[in-house]
Specification:
single chain, 501 residues, alpha+beta, nine-stranded mixed sheet, four-stranded antiparallel sheet, 11 helices, 24% helix, globular
Length: 501
């Protein structure tokens, strides 16, 4: 500190000993499936069932994705990225989609005044009825379906310089249609004309596993979620094949570096013996990866379009339950989403196979790490297990795997501010303080098997080298005090190494 030779105020700035950052969400979910409406191959955030219905058309004959969204939100989920898929002639070419938007022409006095197309591809566009009116002074466009008006765009002009030029207004504001001009300088016929949209196609005739999985180059299918950086959970509701399940596990562990966890659905009407054989022998999922869990059986839920019940993939309900647990309390990511309270399933009326109601049958599936869904007289519908698919790994339990992934992701975020700074002992000390402060906070939230820092976690800083890479290892005690599972972190600082202290 400088010597004070006279009366004065001297300010000295010092960097903080450690920095605090908001925690990342650990419940953001992505699902991939088919729908009758909405964008294709675009991860679209929905924060409520109403928003999902507006964007993807609700049920409209496509149940699986819509039912999963309903179960997700009814069980407490809040952030759901939805990817609509269809068949692609080539998985690595997003332009080769088989889905087509319905189209129709607006007649001019001579020729075509404009072409109207449904906003999104799909057969639903064929149900749209468009009425175009020209009073001579302005244009009015009414869009209806199912015998009722959906929207009305009035006071439109054919003058490109007008504030309400019809092309600009329709293409910017309509939820249902888009327009492009027809013959140059064509005059819209006066009066009212009905325009029928035709040839809309959902593109599902040759739908295959490859269309759900997609391709990283084209960002189709599952890989459309590559751009969702805070993704935490992922599912492909109803796609229950070896290829899809293995692709989900690989996506979470390899493509996303272990930061995402997959929720796998069972085949339809699978008995306890069927699901055991599927996991152990057919799909060979046992010990394939700790970055996912499989749940059984499928659910029965109320038919959203009439009386009776329909079957639904459980992944939407499971992801919503996990999100509810995370949102209800600090440290929810470290709790197992199972049991009568934490694993309670809402919006469920039954299961598609009765084996799960018998304890002896449930005992058959536990050894192959299937998490049964069940109920009993006087009890709710609930999740009766929280195993990963890798019992021989360091992470046999879902809460341990997701907890470690959450900590690793948070630490990377908190240490990112160190980039482009010289690697030396002072920087390592700052990184150590930041990590220790965060881990103590997580310990207080119940992350570890001990409430003593020395038994809950351990931090090892690799001595600096000339590679300008900050390397460290963090030991986490999930199973027992001082029994550490080690997570290795490496951050390329992008600057000089071994600079002056």
């Amino acid at each position: 500190m400088a010597e004070l030779l006279s009366s004065k105020v001297l300010l000295t700035e010092e960097p903080p000993k450690f920095r605090l950052f908001p925690a990342l969400s650990s419940s953001v979910t992505g699902i991939v499936g088919t729908a009758a409406w909405g964008p294709i191959g675009v991860p679209t955030l929905c924060t409520s069932l109403e928003e999902f219905d507006r964007t993807f058309g609700g049920y409209l004959g496509q149940f699986e994705l819509a039912l999963s969204a309903r179960l997700f939100f009814s069980n407490g989920g809040r952030q759901l990225y939805v990817v609509r898929t269809c068949h692609y002639a080539s998985a690595n070419d997003a332009e080769s989609m088989a889905a087509k938007a319905a189209q129709g022409d607006v007649a001019a006095e001579q020729g075509v005044f404009a072409t109207i197309s449904a906003r999104y591809p799909g057969a639903f566009g064929n149900t749209l009825r468009i009425d175009v009116s020209n009073s001579g002074n302005d244009i009015e466009i009414e869009v209806g379906t199912g015998g009722r008006r959906r929207e009305l765009l009035s006071g439109l002009s054919n003058n490109p310089k007008a504030a309400r030029y019809y092309l600009h207004v329709v293409n910017a504001q309509s939820r249902f249609i888009r327009m492009k001009p027809g013959v140059q300088d064509a005059r819209l016929a006066e009066g009212r004309q009905a325009v029928a949209l035709i040839d809309g196609d959902d593109g599902l005739a040759q739908l295959s596993d490859a269309d759900y999985i997609g391709h990283p180059a084209s960002k189709t299918g599952l890989h459309a979620l590559d751009t969702v950086l805070d993704l935490s959970l992922v599912a492909i509701p109803g796609a229950c094949t070896q290829d899809v399940h293995r692709a989900l596990l690989a996506y979470c562990e390899e493509t996303r570096g272990g930061s995402v966890y997959s929720v796998l659905d069972p085949p339809s009407h699978a008995s306890a013996q069927d699901i055991t054989k599927y996991v152990a022998d057919d799909a060979r999922l046992l010990n394939h990866s700790a970055h996912g869990s499989i749940y059984w059986p499928r659910l029965l839920v109320a038919n959203p379009e009439g009386a009776g019940v329909v079957t639904a993939a459980p992944s939407g309900a499971i992801a919503g339950t996990i999100a509810r647990l995370v949102g209800n309390a600090a440290g929810g990511v470290y709790l197992p989403p199972a049991g009568l309270e934490a694993g309670r399933l809402l919006g469920v009326v039954g299961f598609d196979h009765s084996d799960t109601l018998e304890e002896a049958k449930r005992d058959l599936v536990f050894p192959v790490c299937v998490n049964p869904l069940t109920t009993a007289p006087g009890r709710p519908f609930y999740i009766d297990g929280s195993r990963t698919l890798a019992p021989s790994s360091n992470f046999p339990w879902l809460a341990w795997r997701r907890g470690a992934s959450h900590i690793e992701r948070d630490l990377r975020l908190r240490l990112d501010y160190l980039r482009h700074r010289p690697l030396n002992s002072a920087l390592q000390s700052e990184a150590y303080r930041t990590m220790r402060s965060y881990l103590v906070e997580q310990m207080r939230h119940g992350a570890f098997a001990s409430n003593k820092p020395s038994e809950a976690f351990s931090i090892y800083m690799v001595p600096p080298t000339r590679t300008a890479t900050l390397e460290m290892a963090v030991g986490l005690s999930f199973a027992a005090p001082a029994e550490f599972i080690w997570v290795h972190l490496s951050i390329n600082l992008g600057g000089a190494a071994n600079d002056k202290e």
